[in-house]
Amino acid sequence: LPASMFGWITDDVDIVKSSNNSDNAILSMTRTRATSDTPLFAQHVKHNRAEGSADWSFQYDEFREDESTSNRDVFDFAGYIGTLEENASVKIDSIINNNEGILLGNNYRANVTASGDAGLVCCTMKSGSTLEIGSITSESGDFTVTGATAGGLVGSMDTGSKVILSDGLSSVQNSEQSITATGGYAGGIVGSCKGDIQFADSIYTVNQTINGTLGSGGIAGYFEADGGNFSFSSFELGTSAQLNGSGDCGGVFGKLK
User: How far apart are CA 165 and CA 251, in angstroms?
Assistant: First the structure.
């Protein structure tokens, strides 16, 4: 598709293999041309579930206009989810990010780009929303995340929102790849956070180059302690990590309020 698969979708929607098979399916998505500020799956996810969370799995695949050619097209995208609306609850069981293309025998990759908030999984989380992130694999870890506010996984989190990092989850960006905020905060996990970040028992390592305009941090460029909670016993700032840019910079947080 040249646009997001959904403009709006509610968190009570199940993605299954067929009408006769209720097992969760991996939704494969292909971007057919370059677009601006367009997430792959949905621009907005709205709360409508009585209890529990939506349980989705995504796969980004290359596009071939002609099966006889060796060219494989991939295009930049604004994460998988644009905005997780108030009180929406989603579990992303797995993401397979096949973001490497081939043009005339040369490899290239699709980056995460947005003019506003930018994050690989979700760009913006509204108040009360919950996002649990399972496994992420990527064909090429040589990709960048760029937005006004940018995070490795989530762009920004509002008060009362929560991100849950599953056991075994690790950053899929290769070391020295960048997370860049062009007008705000940049963080290895979240750009700007007023919510809760819940770590698993396994270590989450940040090795990227983080470039904020107002601040840069290994976990978050901005963290508001009055609104959120965290425990970083399972967080590690790798030896290849660099915290650059202007404003406040810190190994854990750029600015802690």
Answer: 19
Rounded to 5°, the CA angle 131-173-212 comes to: 80
The full DSSP string for 188-254 is SSEEEESSEEE--SSPEEE-SEEEESSEEESSEEEE-TTT--B--TTEEE-TT-EEEESSEEESSEE
Please tell me the distance from the alpha carbon of residue 172 to that of residue 152, in angstroms, as a whole number.
9
Q: Where are the alpha helices (DSSP H) in the chain?
A: none
Which residues are paired to 138 by β-bridges?
A: 97
In this structure, what token pair is assigned to residue 110?
């699709």
102-121 pLDDT tens trace: 776 667 788 999 999 999 99
Show the tokens assigned to 140. Answer: 């090429």
* Contact by Cβ (8 Å): 132, 90: yes
Find all residues with CB under 8 Å of 59, minimum gap 6, and list them.
26, 27, 28, 29, 95, 96, 97, 98
pLDDT in tens, 22-56: 778 899 998 888 887 899 999 999 999 988 899 99
pTM above 0.85, yes or no: yes
Distance separating alpha carbons of residues 103 and 68, to the nearest angstrom: 14
- Do the Cβ atoms of 98 and 67 come closer than 8 Å? no
Contacts (Cβ under 8 Å, ≥6 apart) of 240: 175, 176, 207
Q: HSE-up of 111 (CA within 13 Å, CB side)?
A: 17
Cα dihedral 244, 210, 216, 167, rounded to 10, equals: -150
Tokens linked to 123: 């760009």
Report residue 186 as tokens. 């940049």
